[in-house]
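call fold(seq) -> tokens
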Amino acid sequence: MTENTFPVYKVDSVVSFYRTEVLTGQEAKHFTKSDLTPTPKPESVQRLYMRILHHLYRFRPEFHSMVPLLENIQYPAFHEGSTAVMSVYLRMQQFLPMCYVYDFSLNDLLAPKTKKTLVVLSGIINFLHFRKQRMEMILEQQARFRADMDMLQTCTKGIKEAEKKIETLTTIPPEQQAEAKELAAALSDLHAATVHEYQEVNGINDTIVEWKAITAEKTQKVAQLKVDVSTLKEDIGKLKSQIVESPEELKSQMEKMRENVKNIKISIEHTDERVVELQNAVQGMTHSEAEIQLMYKLLQDLQSGMNNTKQRQEEVEELAAQYEKRQKELKNLGLEESQLKRALGMKLDKDSKQQIRRQKKKEMKEHHVQDVLGRCDQVHQKREEMADQIQEISRETQQLKAKMQSLRDICSKETENAQALYDNVSISLDEVHKRIETHIVDLNQDISKMSANF
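ret:
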């Protein structure tokens, strides 16, 4: 105990915790600070340990006083006093190591001390806090698992229905088998033709890439030629000013220059045509980008639909929680009804006992007729009062029964509403799945078209 792994609480906090979390009824009211300080009471400490074991392991306090019926034990009645203490001691020795308390002894039950009992009880408080947190986590996981199982069941049902539909669609009747064979042959021919066209398109794409490279080279050459022409024009101007040549040589040079200019113009026209083709291809790419943006918007709409379905699922869970609360209220009303029936039975027993006493008094005291008559009048008055009370109790029971019936009707209506909401949610989920499948098919078709265009 030199190095504690849990805080040691004060007496007031320990008492308040065990009164609210472990003890119930009269035991919680009578458990006070004087049971632990200045000297703990062995009976209250033993009772508290029994309630802790019952709270954790459902081991009832009356089980501690049970003696095993073996042949070797003689006079088991003599062991009834010590069996309860020994049973609590053994169970606490098994339980306290989980709370990091390892030095629990028998004196802690027979003659407990304040410090040691506070250490043990604070360790148990720490363990109960940890247990409560883990129970909440486990309950959340169970709720998620149930929701996942429900979704899995719905998905499996949908898959089975889809498989049945696929089987019905794939099975061809014998009357249409000949037509199906012809269609299959036509489909194979179409597939072969499409494969051939795909190959041709791929070849055309390769040639387009090559032509693009050639056009780029030619554009570079045209630019260089323009630069050369400009330089040549400058050189010609300079040479004209400096040199006087023969007219024949000048004509030949001018013709060569004109031919070069014609060739340059033809190459420029070819490059312009290729540039127009490339612009058309760029426009096709922009159109495909717009289509992709439309598909992205559709996917966003689908996501919003999924969020709406999640909200509906949360509403269904809230309705289920309300239904459980109403069931608990019905159980409490049933317990109250049983208590009222017991009270009525007790009152009827009292009435029967009073009648027996009256008969005996009449047999014993016949000569006191006048006194007996006065007493009888009083008894009749009491009977009327008791009858009025019984009638009031019966009225109250009838009102309680009417309330119970109304609560049952409300619960049935709420269950019907919850079932309707669940059906609507399932239908909306099926529609969303169908929309997703159609959008995926459209996306695949658009991608195939885009790949074919490219």
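The CA atoms of residues 120 and 256 lie 114 Å apart.
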